[in-house]
Amino acid sequence: MKKNVLMSLLVLLMAGCATKSHYYVLSTATQPAHVSPSTKTIGVAQVILPSYMDKRKLTVARTGNQIAQLDSAVWAEDLDIGLTERLISFLQKKFEQPNVFAYPWGVDRQPDMKVKLQINRFLAQGDTVYLDANYLLIDLKRHTSHAYLFNTALKTSSEPSAIVNTMDRAFGELEEDIAEKIK
Question: How many CB atoms lie under 10 A from the CB of residue 93?
Answer without folding.
Answer: 17
